[in-house]
Structure formats: C-alpha cells, structure tokens
Amino acid sequence: MKPLRLALSGSGFKVPAHVGALQAVADAGFEPVELAGTSGGSIVAAMAACRMKLSDMKMLALTFDWSNMLSFSLMSAVRLRGFCDGRRLLDWLTEQTNGMTFGQLSTDLTVVASDVASEAPFEFSRATTPSVAVAQAVRASTSIPFAFEPVRLGDALLADGGMVNNIPVDRLKVDDVPRLGVQLVSQDLPMQPDTSLSPFGFSERLIDLMLSACESTHVSAAQTGGAHMAFVETGYASTLDRTMPLELRQRLFNDGYDAAKAALTLIAAPAATALQ
Fold first, then answer.
1. What is the tens place of the pLDDT at every residue in 11-31?
2. Tell me, what's the pLDDT at 145?
3. Can you tell me whether residue 73 is helix, strand or coil?
4. Between 20 and 30 A from 255 (CA), which of 62, 142, 180, 238?
5. pLDDT digits (tens, 9 = 90+) for 142-163
6. Chain-centroid distance, C-alpha 111
7. What is the H or E stretch that residue 181 is in?
8. Ordered DSSP codes for 263-275
9. Nearest to 226 by CA among 174, 165, 157, 148
C-alpha cells in the first residue's frame, strides 16, 4: 500500500461522501498515514484512525439514524449555548473510537475545533493533546453553533472547527508523501428577493456560509505547497438532514468515491511517469 496524508472537510450529516472517498483511497492502493478532519469530516477521520473497518464504516454511514444526536436539553438552552448538550453524541463517539486517546493511536490524527475564548483555532493531536480522548475532540469539532453546547477544556471553550478551518489540508505534514484534501461543496442557487425561509432553512444556509467562509485561504495555501484536492458537489443533500434516505446517502457515497478517485489518478500519474 502507498502512503497518503488525507484531510476531510466539514460535512454536517453528509458523512457518506467522506466514507466514499476513503473507499476510493483504499481501492487505489493507498493507505492514510496521517488524517486531519473538521466537524463532520473529523468523525470519519477519527473512525479511520481508530482502525474501524471500511465495510463497517460504510454500513454506518448508509444506515445510521442521527435523530437522537440532536436531543433537546433544557439546561443547555437556559445557558444560551445551544439546544443540545451533546452527551448522546459523545457517548456514541466514544463507542465508535473504542475510548482511545490520541496518544494510543498508531496513525497521526489532527482534529480542528474553534476556541471561542481565545478566538483562535484549537488543534487536537498526539503531539498537543496525547491524553485527550479522540471522542472528546470530535465532539468539540462538531459543536454546530446554536445546535450543540460548546465543549469546555481547561481555559478553552470549543465550538465547530468549520469556523476557523473547514478543510484542514494545510495542517498535514509536508514531505514526499502525497497529500489529499476532500472538500464537500454546495453550489446552492441564490435566493430570490421574495423567498422566505423557515428557521431550519435559514440555519442550514447560515451553516453552509460559515463552513465556506475561510476555505479558499486554506485550500490555496495547501495547493501552493503541492497538495491535491477532491471537490465533491453535495448541494442536493441537506447539511442537517438527520434522517437522510438511503438513496441520497448512496449518491453521496458514490460522488465522494468518484471525486477522490479522479484526484488520486492525478497523484499516481507523476509516480508512474517517473518509473518509465
């Protein structure tokens, strides 16, 4: 297997696209030796770093009902930090990652969150937070504003990582190992002046705007340094659709697979030319 450094963007509940990309990586004969993820992408990156089987990951992505992850919490709402305390999500993440800490991982993993207290990125990794549970880091990175209560860690108050770095491909180590960023994009049509949005629809557009706000800077920096990108158009699926139908999940998986496969073909091409 050929080594690869892989970063996965924020995704909301569109995680099947990232699992499809991971399947393409495996089918192309690559093995991630480093993973980085933000928000929804950190869920998939963490499960991969904790050695979950791809077949199990695909089954989960295509069938798991996310409804219980957004259970209302009166105390969280009273504190005005979110409608959900995130305990069910943390318990589920702990189960999927076998309770592992960053120091126990054999694959390098970086999880990006946003520190509201210092107004700066907060990065979990084996080097910076070896004793922190991977599940705790992912819970912090997926703290969608107004939906999940942020995570307190020491002096840090951690919220969704998409606010500071939605596609952390620029956090991957730069060396001879190829780097790939998988970024989910949404080419939504502009709203008409007389269009009204439900609170749910407004929240979804607000989240998409937040996730895309700083992407170009990180992508440009990474590409300038030689990283490759796979852009996956996912505008046909809702970021907050907790009960997404199987057909839509399968389409996300297939599109993630195809986009990553095309990018990996470009990565493999120079190596094949060098051998001739």
1. 989 999 999 999 999 999 999
2. 81
3. coil
4. 142
5. 998 877 888 999 999 999 999 9
6. 9
7. strand 179-185
8. HHHHHHHHHHHHH
9. 174
Structure tokens at 260: 């990553």
Cα(229)–Cα(10) distance, integer angstroms = 14
- DSSP, residue by residue, 104-141: G-SSEEEEEEEETTTTEEEEE-TTT-TTSBHHHHHHHH
Pairing of strands 108-115, 151-153: unpaired
> Two tokens at 169?
């491909």
What pairing do the DSSP bridges indicate for beta strands 179-185 and 108-115? Answer: unpaired
- In the numeric block, the tokens 């199990």 are attached to 56
Q: With residue 34 as reference, give the H or E element that holds it.
A: strand 30-38
Of 14, 4, 16, 8, the C-alpha closest to 38 is 8
3-state class of 80 per DSSP? coil
